[in-house]
Amino acid sequence: MLLTEARFFGVGDVRLVESPVVEAGPDQVALEPLAVGVCGTDSHIVAGGFPAAPGVVLGHEVCGRITFVGDAVDGLSVGDLVTVEPHDYCTRCTYCRLGQEHLCDSKRGYGVKLDGGMASRMVVPGRIAYRLPVGTVPWIGALTEPLACCLHGMDQLDPRSGLPILIYGAGPAGAMMVALAAARGLAPIVVVDPRPDRREVALRMGADFVFAPDDPGISEPTEGLGFPHVIDAVGSGRILESAISMASRGGRILVFGVAHPSDEARIRPNEIFARELTLVGAVINPYTHHRATRLLGPLGLDRLRPAFYGLDQLDDALKAQQTGTADKVFITPHGLAAALGVA
Ligand SMILES: [Zn+2]
Ligand SMILES: [Zn+2]
């Protein structure tokens, strides 16, 4: 039997290839990926803007069904629906030894440096396969990874309930940030996005007010005080400048979106000082993957509108991720019914 895999070979060069089955080791599990999220990182990899290993199988937002469990793996069984925490850490650098593995010097991501889930079969260490709550729909399960990143961002922002929040960007991450903000009792939730369809998803996920970026009324819901919490879920210098200007005194600003490495913002140190602002970053999902599996249901992520593509439609899926109107795009290596959990 051969595996079908979507491998990245170089800029603009992703191909479906057939490979021999690799046996799983004693500390590993094999799974059939049922739904794999397509995200901005995948598009950046294919466009050459994010370094990935040539020949790697793409896909880091994985939900799958376990088909094999190695002898040394405890707590997992064949048939379990799992999500993968898609990182490997060196365990030896200073950051790893400080419990900050996500800042590891030699961190390697599945779907980036190690083979990911856009394949008919995936083999991973058992310790990074997390069992999902009974009844989880596979495409919702594939949202665990991006939700875990949002959860880390929210932890970094550390907002106070009962106060307003401003979120720039209502792509998949921004939309999940809206749901998390609502669950944490932030109010009102104000979202800025240039796209009407994304302003609509923000409302669907619990935003109280939505605005286009050039709308002069953005701070009106705070009676002109500005926002004690601001999230940049887009990633750009210009948005960081806006975020700082929209923050209230004592405001906390989370830089969450992935800006281009060369992008810059003009910041006046006096403003950070005099208005006592706090700027925080958040990268990936340290120790939040487990918590994210518990939140998939309560957050009502089934309000997102998905689009599904087969493994052989990756080009179309990447296009849809960049320009389509679905809230989130998924690859379905074992067919649509399996991704919907009705197979
Ligand atoms: Zn992603
Ligand atoms: Zn390390």
TrEMBL record:
Keyword Oxidoreductase carried by entry: yes
Keyword Phosphoprotein attached: no
Keywords, ordered alphabetically: Metal-binding, Oxidoreductase, Zinc
Domain Alcohol dehydrogenase-like C-terminal: 174-285
PROSITE patterns in the record: ADH_ZINC (PS00059)
The Alcohol dehydrogenase-like N-terminal domain, residue ranges: 25-133
UniProt record similarity statement: Belongs to the zinc-containing alcohol dehydrogenase family.
Name of the protein this chain belongs to: Alcohol dehydrogenase catalytic domain-containing protein
